[in-house]
Amino acid sequence: MTSTLPPYARLPLRFDTDALHTAVITLPEDAWQPHFNTGYYDGDWSGVALRAFDDALLPLAPGSGEVRNTRYCDAFWNAQLARLETGLRSARLLRLGPGGCIREHCDYDLGRPDGDLRVHIPIVTDAQVDFLLDGRRVPMQVGECWFLDLSRPHRVENHGGRARIHLVVDCRPSPWLAAQIAAGIPDTPTSQPSRGNEAFTAFRTHVHADPVLEAMLADHHDTETFLHAVLALATETGHRFGREDVRAAMAQGRRDWIEQWLV
Question: How far is 224 from 71, CA to CA, in rounded Å?
Fold first, then answer.
């Protein structure tokens, strides 16, 4: 089903951001558990499970058994989830702290023919948070509801001074959800180029125009030393981007090569 859907769409649904925020700040701090994918992020990426698999081995992790409400899914959160008129799987509040980064990855299970469809409802965010899907910023605002095809490459960077918090729900495909996605497409804002990607593209053009710089970077065959050299040279030449922008560009290069090879 996901192959016929767009990369993202803002659904017609809207949520009461004040009420959501109030419900979030009343949760005890020990309700927030570190995300289980520890190799995917830097900083604070944590969450509160509202609906979870009863056979999940770790908090926030997927499973294959029954899905049940947790003790944090009270009447308020049940009412919010009930607005998604389709079968629900996991539901989590996910928090990315200031300065935090979720590295680029793909959630391949969401790309299966009968895979779940993921929606995001931003509760706390600002213009300094970059949610990048296929290398472009998705302009999600508080109270909105977005479908995102996260089987595609995506990452998140919080350059702001407060935690970004989303309600993230995995839904079963259904005619209702497909209709919501289709209805939202015409009014969905256009994604914007990544600020870091634009700076990296300018840097790459600068390097390719200078054989000395090009040769200097080509001498670094180890990934980490190459990344360090690129970032040091970028600082010297006034190009502002981060380690994840370089990693994303390298990953995209590998994907382009694979696609060309498979043709």
Answer: 43
